[in-house]
Amino acid sequence: MYGYRETALRHPNGIPSWVIDDGKATESNLFYPFLTVQMQGHGFGSDGCMHKATNECMIASSICVRMLDRLNQRLAVRQRGDTSTMINSAAFSIAMNGAVARIYVTFAFDETRDHVHKVDSFVLENPSHYRKFHRYIQSIIDWGKNERLREIRDTIEVIESSGPRWYPRYEL
Fold it and tell me: Model confidence over 74-88: pLDDT tens digits?
């Protein structure tokens, strides 16, 4: 799982409590994850089921999208009357079984449904597929470390600077 450590989201007044409540991934100390990887074994003694890995990807990436949706909802409340800008809440996931890898992107247009799209599939034994897979991963990580992180920091700053500091987790 790729996301952000608390230090990446550090705010001059400390990390807001609502960020901890809304954006922290449960099994890791990462906030607002943008890439999850689900790996199933491959070969004898292993089921290597891509179907299972894909289902787990869909669940994990949907949770990641919803975390950013909550941040977008807080931003919308603060920007009432202003031109509303939203953070791209897309999340990527990779399902693998040792021989095949598939990259998915999950996004939501509204609060009721998530959409999952298969970006590409790769046979990892094929050198050209492996290089292409590596380039995709590097691009996703670069996006997450730069553009997306900047958007999240800016959004937290807007939310924190335009409202009362008391009990922000109960607002919205």
Answer: 888 887 766 667 888
